[in-house]
Design goal:
Blueprint: E1 2-7, H1 20-29, E2 34-41, H2 51-59, E3 63-67, H3 72-75, H4 87-100, H5 107-123, E4 128-133, H6 137-149, E5 153-157, H7 172-188, E6 191-194, H8 197-206, E7 215-217, H9 224-227, E8 240-247, H10 255-267, H11 269-272, E9 275-282, H12 285-293, E10 300-304, H13 308-316, E11 320-324, H14 337-345, E12 349-352, H15 357-365, E13 368-371, H16 376-391, H17 400-404, H18 408-427
Parallel strand pairs: 1-2, 1-4, 2-3, 4-5, 5-6, 6-7, 8-9, 8-11, 9-10, 11-12, 12-13
Helix pairs in contact: 1-18, 5-6, 6-7, 10-16
């Protein structure tokens, strides 16, 4: 059994989709002869906590080493689950932290966590270091550990670093620092994992020393064990349930979808009054106000944040799912874990997406009604089309072979094969 040190700031009991990729990797690593030790954050103040995900890690006997940091989340640990601020306040706070904390506001945690990393690597024999980002300060930490202990380093890019869709660079100097940090990290890494081809292409075009073989694509996925023994809820009526699971922030917004549904209530009330809109997660006050302004309250059911299993029950109890990503900078590189979990349900999806990795995946899924993210008329017509197929019991079926390629156990096998190649190279 080989040993890997997994560095991941976002890990249960923190919730939301950012924790699941690493959780599912470490859950299945032992099946492929790799024993993970996860180095992560201690108690944090965060928007969501999910003890069911932590129980999943514990049931898999995953060793977890937690480090207190000096980052803002650690300082808010006594508050536990904190309320998500209004979007305009969140953006202001994000820009302030981007101005003064480089590469991100988790550097306080990384400075403390590297001490734990050194202790682990000094006292035990590890074969490899694996780090998942963002936060990108975790990559800087992993680079230092790789140089000190001469171990292979694998970096997992869930999102772009330089040019990230949510990045804010107040001065050219900030931009230069980020690019220089990433340059050093990529020069040091032994293997880079990216969630999609768009990220890979942009990195190779930006850093000419990277070759095609340096970056291996492992997409997001779904865990078939999550769906085992789940029973859908009994429906109280024959209305079509159209569900969204997740949060809204930045350019991920329900604005165009809600405006499209408002038009539907006027033009096709016979369709609209046979549809329920279910929102799971953080709908947020600004969107509730829009729902009230558009007078859509009778169509909307809000369930708030649910633990992972509860959310999956709601999703599999729905008839059609909805997904959106707006037109931000480098939005073509976004690879949302939510869409791939949608794939695991085998439900039809209304996918309001820009050109890019997510749209390509939705097309390959086959059971998708695809629209532009801000095309109100197109979204309205997609809802009508989905309802007419639902009422005729003719909703499209997905490509099963495509779905099977995104099982979390299969994806973990791909990852551990990359680990194995690096270990063999060191022996040779």
């Amino acid at each position: 059994m080989y040993k890997v040190l997994v560095i991941a700031y976002y890990f249960p009991p923190m919730g939301l989709s950012g924790v699941q990729r690493t959780l599912k990797f470490v859950k299945y690593m032992k099946s492929f002869n790799w024993d993970p030790t996860v180095l992560t954050a201690s108690n944090t103040g965060y928007y969501a906590h999910d003890n069911s995900l932590l129980a999943e890690a514990e049931a898999a006997n995953i060793r977890i080493v937690r480090t207190n940091g000096r980052d803002i989340n650690s300082r808010l640990s006594k508050k536990g689950t904190v309320k998500m601020p209004p979007e305009f306040i969140r953006k202001i706070l994000s820009r302030i932290s981007s101005t003064f904390l480089i590469p991100d506001n988790k550097i306080g945690w990384a400075k403390e966590a590297i001490k734990s990393g050194r202790e682990l690597l000094s006292s035990e024999k590890f074969d490899l270091i694996f780090v998942s980002a963002p936060p990108f300060s975790a990559i800087n930490m992993a680079v230092k550990l790789k140089k000190e202990f001469n171990l292979p380093l694998v970096i997992d890019y869930r999102d772009l670093w330089f040019g990230n869709q949510f990045a804010f660079y107040p001065t050219p100097f900030h931009k230069l620092l980020h690019k220089r940090m990433e340059y050093v990290a990529l020069k040091t890494a032994d293997k880079i994992i990216a969630t999609n081809r768009k990220i890979k292409e942009k990195m190779i075009n930006r850093y000419k020393f990277l070759s095609f073989e340096d970056i291996f694509i492992i997409s997001h996925g779904f865990d078939p064990e999550d769906f085992a023994n789940l029973l859908p809820e009994k429906k109280e009526n024959n209305k079509m349930r159209l569900a969204y699971s997740g949060i809204f922030y930045e350019f991920i917004t329900p604005k165009y979808f809600l405006k499209a549904f408002k038009e539907l209530t006027i033009e096709r009330p016979d369709v609209a009054f046979n549809i329920e809109l279910h929102f799971l997660g953080f709908l947020r006050n600004e969107n509730r106000k829009l729902i009230n302004k558009l007078e859509l309250q009778e169509f909307v059911k809000e369930f708030g944040y649910l633990d992972h299993k509860e959310a999956l029950v709601k999703i599999i109890s729905s008839d059609v799912l909805w997904m959106m990503v707006g037109r931000g900078r480098n939005a073509d590189t976004i690879s949302s874990g939510k869409l791939y979990e949608y794939f695991g349900t085998k439900k039809p999806i209304i996918a309001s997406l820009p050109d890019g990795a997510l749209k390509t995946a939705a097309e390959e899924y086959k059971a998708s009604f695809i629209t532009e993210p801000d095309d109100i008329k197109g979204i309205k017509n997609a809802i009508i089309g989905a309802y007419l197929m639902y009422s005729g019991n003719q909703l499209p079926a997905p490509d099963v072979d495509f779905i099977e390629k995104h099982r979390r156990d299969f994806l973990t096998e791909q990852l551990t094969k990359q680990f194995q190649f690096l270990v063999r190279e060191r022996v040779i």
